[in-house]
Specification:
Strand order of the largest sheet: 3-1-4-5-10-9-8
Largest sheet: 7 strands, mixed
Strand content: 35-45%
Radius of gyration: 32 Å
Oligomer: single chain
Number of helices: 7
Structural class: mainly beta
Helix content: under 10%
């Protein structure tokens, strides 16, 4: 995501002022709000190209079991099936260039890979190649023999398997990888050269694999991994036992980059996975005479030949009948994959039976009309398929109906019927899914139910104040996510998101219990498939929470997403693609925060894009409709980074009545950011305050600079933080009236030590504040005695900063016990503050932490000179009392005095018998 063409003046000025202090912080913790370019890294699906060749009349449908095998047996794959045998065609070469794995079905014409271009020799292809064949090959064919060789076929029989784990691959004769043009032949010695014989039946080679660089018995050296399977029967069906399918899965996983599913099932005729959906191909039924079978966009489908009106099909010639066996008793929801033709609303309806069983084609009550399909449906893989959608015409899409179908025990086989209505509607397949599941386009395409959620906490938790410590990351991947970006109360626990990590490396959505004993990684995110690198604090509404992702979406410019309580993630809005200079579009890009909600409307900020490339403010409904750009930030002066209205809003807006208030991190009259207000309909945009320019070397000024967080509003006053500026150059906490009057700095964060990065109280706050009564709670992402950030409070009636907790130093590997670098706000639940640390923890991937809200102790003296300290914290919590005689020397050395367990009201009393003239106390949760 190169962001060239952005405000050069702002970028230059920012790099100067952050070079010593904040710059070091950003390098250390990889702070998400600045390193948006990091979103470019993603882990996409494995592309499997299934080449069925030109010589098989069945086309894709003739090899559907092969397509299903890869879709159903492996996770995160995209299967492209078609005739790709003519490698002289530029389009075919483009498909092959996109492939991670090439699968040659038995009918593929090998001449396409026997060209003068060495790139397309089978021996020269650098990607793994898998050949599926039921007969030995001669002449120019891959995987079949034109003569009658049925007598040479040996059906699979596990009792004759002579190699461990092998089964049901069957063909007599010897096999080899032909050394001339990449074909198989029957003339070899039967040896595999440097390949591995994976399965044997009756002494014959039935599955053979070669790793890249290995040679066949004929001396051919392969540029990529090669697999040969000889499958019984026609070659278009897979092994008919679970053992046979598992053997194939194991071999494919070993020789390609595919990742087997946990508990993989089969797409064969026997066994099968328990988490499959009930998929019905439209052409597989008994079709009335007015239905025809077609191929459109690679999908074999049916359509009615003549349009007919009314409220029922009208005749049996217009009815298609299917016999379906369901996996178990349940209540099922009906989905269909369909294509609306060029005539739009004149091509967008059909009939389906109101219940199972054979229906009268002329009885209206037996049929429901699916109409208005031109303006509904879903196409994006991670979208949840509901009864809505807005995918338009002339595209394959999924639609859903509210009608439920009940299947009872003892009656798992049912008759289902559909009827034709308009001749421009094409039906590809129907899917019946459990009614209590939220299914995405990806689920319906693959035929699999959503993966179950799982609980994880590799590092023992809760551990002291860290109620969850995220797993260590290997090659950007872990189980529960890396770098948490915000929390919100959700049900009886919390919900949140991580910026990276997870199974795809692009972040996760999670829920957890308050005590950390239950943590569920609800959904992994992927920039390539849906949305990745989420930002900001979630907004919760009932059983759904909403957020933004700075990467992915349909156009790789970010998205607004919704996560359900059951873990399903839906894209509500994909931001438009950026222009060729990677900076401009119509609606904004790389959204960083959703901060406001009013009824069914969400308000947020996009940090880039828009007409001038400096970001936008937007609104969108909670169902994904009505996306509106409320404000587009103006272009910056190329030298000074200034403008009239600010730029690059990282923090989202806060709503008070019909007015939104927020900050833009750059731009303004002095190039240091602004505070703004805007009506919720996009009118009356007003800059309330322009932050002052900063000293280019010390990053100091009189009021703070570069606000990267949202605001809180109370009694007509706005409160916020700046990342830099102030007297210490490390940020400020400020207040300003909603009319722009009375700007006041409530706290200047102290300068940090130039070598150790430490200070008293923290530095570089970049998260919005939490206001409880008269007390503001917040986080500083850097500084403190451990140079790893802090949690603080400030009473607005007596604005003196108090440090609640300073995070301990991290090791050279970025690890510690409880977390480091809090870049997100804290939330209050009961008498505790919960927050997320972007880094640190034993895995270096961040933590979720809990701190007791300080009820600052009442201290009373006793006649003998000792002290009695009365304290109120979190109920039934363990706290350690610490003391120090010196707060001026950094780092502050705290001495443990006592461990106390609070009562049900959170109260405890501590007696200190030491007689000292000067002593400071604090309590820390365990």
């Amino acid at each position: 995501m190169k962001r060239s063409g952005r405000n050069q003046g702002f970028a230059v000025q920012t790099s100067r002022l952050l070079s010593k202090r904040v710059g070091r912080l950003l390098r250390n913790i990889g702070i998400a709000l600045v390193l948006v370019s990091a979103c470019a890294s993603s882990r996409g699906a494995t592309t499997v190209v299934v080449d069925h060749g030109a010589s098989w009349a069945g086309g894709v449908s003739g090899n559907q079991s092969t397509v299903d095998f890869f879709n159903n047996s492996f996770s995160n794959v995209t299967v492209l099936a078609g005739d790709y045998s003519d490698t002289s065609d530029a389009g075919v070469r483009a498909v092959l260039a996109s492939a991670d794995v090439l699968v040659l079905c038995r009918t593929t014409y090998s001449g396409g890979y026997d060209t003068t271009d060495e790139t397309y020799y089978n021996s020269s292809l650098t990607i793994p190649v898998i050949c599926l064949t039921s007969y030995l090959s001669r002449d120019t064919k891959l995987g079949w023999e034109s003569g009658d060789v049925a007598s040479s076929v040996v059906d699979g029989n596990e009792t004759t398997v002579t190699a461990a784990g092998a089964s049901v691959f069957g063909v007599s004769g010897t096999v080899d990888w032909w050394s001339g043009t990449g074909e198989f032949n029957a003339a070899g010695s039967g040896a595999a050269g440097e390949g591995e014989i994976l399965a044997l039946i009756g002494g014959y080679n039935l599955a053979v694999g070669w790793m890249a660089g290995a040679r066949s018995a004929a001396g051919n050296t392969f540029s990529g991994n090669r697999l040969l399977f000889n499958i019984p029967g026609s070659g278009n069906t897979l092994p008919d036992t679970d053992e046979g399918v598992q053997a194939m899965i194991d071999a494919v996983a070993a020789y390609t980059s595919l990742i087997p599913r946990n508990g993989s099932g089969s797409s064969g005729t026997g066994g099968g996975a328990t988490n499959t959906l009930t998929v019905v191909e439209a052409e597989s039924g008994i079709l009335g005479t007015e239905f025809g079978i077609n191929t459109l966009g690679g999908a074999t489908n049916i359509t009615i030949s003549v349009t007919g009106g009314g409220y029922s099909p009208g005749s049996d010639a217009r009815v298609a009948t299917y016999t379906i066996t369901f996996p178990g008793a349940d209540t099922y929801q009906l989905y269909a994959r369909l294509y609306v033709g060029v005539d739009g609303y004149n091509d967008d309806s059909f009939f389906y039976a109101t219940s199972f069983g054979s229906k009268s084609a002329t009885t209206d009550a037996d049929w429901s009309m699916a109409n208005g399909l031109a303006s509904t449906g879903f196409t994006v893989e991670q979208e949840a398929v509901t009864s809505g959608g807005a995918s338009g015409t002339q595209i394959w899409k999924w639609v859903k109906w509210d009608t439920l179908f009940t299947v009872n025990e003892g009656s798992l086989t049912q008759t289902f019927q559909v009827g034709g209505r308009e001749d421009g509607l094409y039906l590809d397949k129907f899917v019946f899914g459990p009614s209590d599941e939220v299914l995405t386009v990806e689920n319906l395409d693959s035929g699999f139910l959503p993966e179950p959620t799982f609980s994880t906490n590799t590092f023992d938790g809760p551990f002291g104040m860290a109620v969850h410590r995220f797993d260590e990351v290997y090659e950007n991947i872990n189980r529960d996510g890396e770098h948490p970006v915000g929390l919100a109360p959700f049900g009886n626990g919390l919900c949140g998101m991580t910026f990276s990590g997870g199974e795809q490396g692009d972040g996760t959505v999670f829920t957890m219990s308050l005590d950390g004993s239950e943590f569920s990684m609800a959904a992994p995110l992927s920039s390539a498939l849906s949305a990745g690198h989420p930002q900001g604090t979630p907004i919760v509404s009932g059983s759904t929470f909403f957020g933004t992702a700075a990467a992915g979406g349909a156009n790789s410019a970010g998205a607004v997403l919704a996560a359900q309580e059951n873990g399903r993630v839906t894209l509500l809005q994909s931001f438009d693609a950026l222009s060729n200079d990677a900076s401009r579009n119509t609606g904004g890009a790389y959204p960083c925060a959703l901060m406001a909600q009013s009824g069914a409307t969400l308000y947020g900020a996009a940090s880039a894009g828009g007409a001038h490339g400096e970001g936008t403010l937007f609104s969108v409904s909670t169902n994904g409709t009505g996306f509106t750009v409320l404000h587009t930030f103006s272009a910056l002066d190329a030298v000074h980074g200034t403008n009239a209205d600010g730029a690059v809003p990282y923090g989202g807006p806060v709503r008070s009545g019909d007015i939104l208030y927020g900050t833009a991190s750059g731009g303004g009259e002095h190039g240091a950011g602004v505070v703004y207000s805007i009506a919720s309909d996009g009118s009356d945009f007003t800059v309330l305050y322009h932050f002052q320019s900063v000293d280019p070397w010390m990053a100091t000024n009189s009021g703070g600079a570069f606000p990267c967080s949202g605001l809180v509003c109370s009694n007509n006053v706005l409160y916020g933080t700046t990342l830099s500026g102030g007297t210490g150059g490390c940020g400020t906490l400020f207040a300003v009236g909603i009319d722009g009057s009375g700007f006041t700095v409530l706290h200047d964060f102290a300068a940090t030590d130039p070598l150790a990065d430490t200070n008293a109280g923290g530095a570089a706050p970049c998260a919005e504040l939490l206001l409880c009564g008269n007390v503001l709670y917040g986080t500083a992402s850097a500084g403190g005695s451990g140079a790893a950030g802090s949690v603080f409070s400030l009473d607005i009636t007596d604005p003196v900063m108090k440090t609640i907790y300073e995070f301990e130093p991290v090791s050279g590997a970025g690890t510690n016990n409880y977390g480091a670098y809090p870049t997100a706000p804290v939330v209050r639940v009961g008498n505790s503050l919960y927050g997320s640390a972007f880094g640190g923890g034993p895995g270096g991937a961040g933590t979720i932490f809990r701190l007791s809200i300080p009820a600052y102790a009442s201290v009373s003296g006793i006649s003998d000179g000792s002290l009695m300290i009365d304290f109120v914290g979190a109920p039934n919590s363990s706290c350690v009392v610490q003391a120090t005689e010196d707060l001026s020397s950094l780092p502050v050395v705290w001495q443990d005095l006592s461990t106390n367990l609070t009562d049900s009201s959170g109260r405890w009393t501590f007696y200190d018998a030491a007689v000292l003239s000067n002593r400071f106390y604090r309590a820390q949760s365990l």
